[in-house]
Amino acid sequence: PGRMAGAMVQLWWRCVFGPKLSRIHRSAEPSRAGPVRQQGWTYQAKALEKHTDSILGWASALWSLSYYTSPLLVFYLYRKGYICSSKLVPVGQYVGTLLIVLVGVACLRGIGRWTNPEYIQFITILEETKRNNRSENKKKLACFNFDFRSWPVDFNWSDVSSRKELTKGGVSLLKSEPKHRGAADSLLSSVRKLPCQLVSYLIAHSFGRRMLYPGSVCLLQKAMRPMLQQGQARLVEEFDGERAKLVACDGNEIDTMFVDRRMGAGEQGHTLVICCEGNAGFYEVGCMNTPLEGGYSVLGWNHPGFGGSTGVPFPQNEANAMDVVVQYAIHRLGFKLDDIIIYAWSIGGFTATWAAMSYPDIRALVLDASFDDLLPLALKVMPESWRSLVTRTVRQYMNLNNADQLCKYQGPVLLIRRTKDEIITTSGPEDIMSNRGNDLLLRLLQFRYPKVMTEDGIRAVREWLGAGTNIEEASVYSRYEVDDDWCTSVLQSYQTDLATEFPWSVGEDMTSEGRRQLALFLARKYMRNFDTTHCTPLPYAEFHSPWRL
Q1: Rounded to whole angstroms, how far apart are CA atoms 96 and 61?
Q2: Are strands 41-42 and 144-146 parallel, antiparallel or unpaired?
């Protein structure tokens, strides 16, 4: 009896501190009839657990509100004369009483969970998995959707990599070239710039980061929680998705979802598409759906600070997260780099181009509605008087230099431009020439084919980029009398004779007419238009493998 009572108390204690359970995807017990696809159901908390959980939720929200407003609150109390021992002692007593009440509420919630068979089954499986992280236990645990902070680690960056490979912040990033100055001049300049650097730091770490990545804002995530849970249920229950927690080199935990199609009949299932979401995108409801429609194996992940991922989405943390995702795909999921396509939407182009630069043997890169550099887009939304401050802040803390990273990749690339994009245009969706996807294409072509992209070639490509419809596009193409067969044969003969890495010197001894033809041919191979706005989901019909010569 004593042992039984002790076990019961221990189980209740686990229920008190256990994670919140939101959904059961399928029964954790194997069916006698064999593997049968089951429809999941929402976890039904009993009345005691439901009411006490609501109280604790409100207490958590009030604590968050008081934490963020604490500087104003302290200032107000100081001005009113409340910050003195005679006033603080009663306040401390009230706070102590409130904490005791909340502890009692948490204990009552534990009793509510303790009397629920579904929660008891879940917490028992969770504890067993923490003790023994076998695949059998993980498979049972995957039947439940619960607070991801309690999910056991599935893969750690340090399992396959060494810290000798890291810089101070983590994996290596491209840095702008430093300006060489004398030591005294440099010290004096640093002192002068100190106030501006402090302001830049405060902007980047307060509203700047949240403007750039609104998906990391807690209030938005709480508003989207039902939609995210529904999306995750769909991935797990309809596509047999496997959720996993990865630990990056900076210690951030990255929430991922993998859908394995290698056992299917199609060849595309043996290709893995790693998806990089936008600044308010989550794998639960994001661009994963596009390659899923095409039968590919797909690996989605959430930015640091999004969904179940921890940390904040600064460029260094983003690159660290992308690195552990690629390592996980190679070392745990068993894909070769040549079997991996990186697909990114919008701001996800930063991590996608970083991965292509750092893992040059990946099969291909697809960038949808992405841009060349963050700075022009940041200057668009900030006051003109802030130009120098915005420039400093972006370059120091939010330097999303997609074009620089893309030019380090030698493999096939496809850029998808939204012709009515309202987000990555600098003057408005009606001005297609202000779309920063144009600048990304021009940078790539100028790097890879510098002898083709002379003044004549650039002018022809710009004219083609200014075409907003397929008819206008075809009109520009026919006006320059582009011969696709001739362009292909020129490029193939160059590749056969020299077989060198980019940049190529093809077009060096060519006429202006030939360079214009070749420039337009290459532009149409590297970029496709999609006649819609920035946030419209990309249908699978528009998802193409990049052009290979």
Answers
A1: 18
A2: unpaired
C-alpha 470 chain-centroid distance: 32
Q: What is the pLDDT of residues 344-380, one digit of tens each?
A: 999 999 999 999 999 999 999 999 999 999 999 999 9
Using DSSP's 3-state secondary structure scheme, residue 368 falls into strand
Distance CA 512, CA 507 (A): 9
For helices 436-448 and 455-465, angle between their N-to-C axes, nearest 10 degrees: 150
Q: Which residues, in sequence order, are CB contacts of 503 under 8 Å at separation 6+?
A: 447, 448, 449, 450
What percent of the chain stands above pLDDT 90?
A: 76
pLDDT tens digit string along 174-184?
876 555 555 55
Give the angle 413-419-422 at the CA atoms, nearest 5°: 110
3-state secondary structure of 84: coil
Are 144 and 125 a contacting pair, CB within 8 Å? yes
- End-to-end C-alpha distance for the chain, whole angstroms: 76
State the Cα–Cα distance between residues 229 and 535, nearest whole angstrom.
21
The secondary structure element, H or E, covering residue 96 is helix 85-114
Could you write out the DSSP letters of every residue in 325-336? HHHHHHHTS---
Copy the structure tokens of residue 32. Answer: 């006698």
Dihedral pair phi/psi, residue 5, rounded to 5°: -65, -40
CA distance 412 to 414: 7
**Following DSSP, what letter does each residue of 52-67 receive, concatenated?**
HHHHHHHHHHHHHHHH
Kindly report, residue by residue over 446-470, the tens digit of the pLDDT.
Answer: 999 999 999 999 999 999 999 988 8
- Residue, of 27 and 502, whose pLDDT is higher: 502
Dihedral pair phi/psi, residue 372, rounded to 5°: -85, -35
Phi, psi of 154 (to 5 degrees): -100, -30
The 10s digit of each residue's pLDDT in 190-228 is 777 788 889 999 999 989 999 999 999 988 998 899 999
Pure H helices in 217-258: 218-239
* Alpha-carbon span 111 to 12, nearest angstrom: 7
Q: How many CA atoms lie within 13 A of 221 on its CB side?
A: 17
Please determine, for residue 313, whether its predicted confidence score (pLDDT) is greater than 70: yes
Cα–Cα distance, 425 to 346 (Å, whole number): 12
**DSSP states of 442-467:** HHHHHHH-TTTSSHHHHHHHHHHHT-
Place of tokens 């340090």: 158
DSSP string, 518-546: HHHHHHHHHEEEE-S-TTSPPPGGG--PP
Is the model's pLDDT at 33 over the cut of 60?
no
Which among 459, 453, 506 is positioned nearest to 480, based on CA atoms?
459
**Token pair of 372, please?**
């060349």
* Pairing between β-strand 272-276 and β-strand 155-156 as defined by DSSP bridges: unpaired
SS3 state at 337: helix
Question: What ranges in 240-385 are assigned the alpha helix state H?
Answer: 289-293, 315-331, 349-358, 374-381
